[in-house]
Amino acid sequence: IGPVLALALMSEEAVEHWKALLGPWDLTEALSQTPQSFRARFSLEDVPINQIHGSSTPEEAQREISFFFSEERFLPTVQPGSLDEPRGVEPAL
Questions:
Q1: Which of 44, 32, 31, 36 is nearest to 20 (CA)?
Q2: Which end is more exposed in the chain, N or C (fewer Cβ atoms within 10 Å of the end residue's Cβ)?
Q3: Which pTM does this prediction carry?
Q4: What is the mean pLDDT of the chain?
């Protein structure tokens, strides 16, 4: 099993903030309009699909999780206190 990245969006308007960090869906737009967005900075230009995705709503996230992972194989867990404050993780900017 490879590395796992977990994100906790814990604020008012978290989904809107996340979408702003991602930038426009179209890579050309992201590069010209929001050069500091995740899509502009980390997407590969010669790949024909959107490489960086974030669900727009909790309902959309559930549909997407169900598409890729069967219910029998998906078990999200959160350790007590693990979301109290970030530890030892530097943003990769």
A1: 36
A2: N
A3: 0.56
A4: 75
